[in-house]
Amino acid sequence: MTTLAHTLADSRTMLHRQLLHLRRYPSLTVMLIGLPVIFLLLFVYVFGGTLGAGIGGGRAAYVNYLTPGILLFTVAGVATGTAVSVAMDMTEGIVDRFRSLAIARSALLTGHVLGSLVQNLLALAAVLGVALLAGFRPDATPLEWLAALGVLTATAFALTWFAVALGMVADSVETASNTPMFLSLLPFLGSGFVPTQTMPAGLRTFAEYQPFTPIIETLRGLLLGSGIGTAAVTALAWCAGISLLSYLWARRRYRRRATA
Fold first, then answer.
1. Model's pTM, two decimal places?
2. Structural domain harbouring 140
3. Of 93, 95, 103, 208, which sits most exposed with the smallest number of CB within 10 A?
4. DSSP-derived secondary structure for 196-222
5. How many domains does the chain have?
6. How does pLDDT run across 70-121, given as a tens digit for each residue?
């Protein structure tokens, strides 16, 4: 068996391990779905009338505006679960057990990333289903839906590698569960819930230049037909940069741990 085939086989085994964890502990996936759904329903049915009026519409207009931000909030929440899962492996000795076996070193991290992507897709599908029931009415073509899925997958991939790196450096599971929480705040401090133009000057500058805002605007443009401009290029550049730097960071930390 070639080195590449050996690595792919080991990665598939580690993915299977992560999927078994998802099936064994469904409460985590339910929690990762439940929180975005709660925020969606809260903002639509409690604040939607007022906030919708602020963007020139009503509750129906606001659920359309809100849903892309909620989808990004969902992806950020799954990243927290990934960091916890990685930290558990790093602190409970499983890495030392794998090190004694003839498996590819990268397979463990690859399994975490692929498992997290599967969890992301499940969570996004569930949250999107609730959004449609709450009145979300996209007018995207099949090609635009495919592009939106690609943007969400690229974002999930980037945040997953970032979460893997955070889980690697955490000294405990508790630390790993708290460190990525700032990711869940970024949709609030961007254009996810209200237009950035309504924010104070300093906060508006941060909101316009942080990574989640161009991603949200790209999704909003693809799903609802609003203008995208340069947001798509900026969004993909953020995803590529975060993915690369996080991968290099995680790989370095894992190699250091594996050779310790």
1. 0.89
2. 3-258
3. 93
4. GGGS-HHHHHHHHHSTHHHHHHHHHHH
5. 1
6. 999 999 998 888 888 888 877 776 666 666 665 666 777 888 888 889 889 9
